[in-house]
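Worked problem 6 (solution included).
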Amino acid sequence: MPLIKEKTYTVDDIYALPEDERAELIDGQIYYMAPPTRKHQDVSMELSSQIKAYVRSKGGQGKVYAAPFAVYLDESANTYVEPDISVICDKNKLTDKGCKGAPDWIIEIVSPTSRRMDYYTKLFKYRTAGVREYWIVDPDKDRIFVYHFVAESAEEESMEEYTLKDSVKAGIYDELVIDFGDMDVE
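Solution. The predicted structure is:
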């Protein structure tokens, strides 16, 4: 019996979705996204605000975008993601539609429905696309995982683990430290 071929989707299929539906496209497969919780939004706003304030205070080395913001990780038409927070240092990657290529820093805030995507699928996609730093913030598990992908070889890449009470240094900026314990998150 022949195998049934799965449909492969493109960015055009994402654009054709109804306005009230959000989804991401990874390797031709559509992944629908549930609306974020209030706590998710609190964390996103706190992080975005702190990063943007730091970037602004240092003369604007980079742009900070919170979801929904389109990121086209590569030249193919079968991958489109909307990270919770994207930091892009090379303004040449920015278009009116979003970011063409890998952002320098991506932060994903884990929701119960996004856990597998954030920890596995996106981790792999972001690393192979050239993202320099990836943070997984998991409020339910009180954990932050910081991945540094800028090493010369895979053996030199690193992962650090923190709690939501810790201060975490951003790797792409010399002086930016995020104090999670000081955040106004309920």
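Discussion: The chain has a mean pLDDT of 91.
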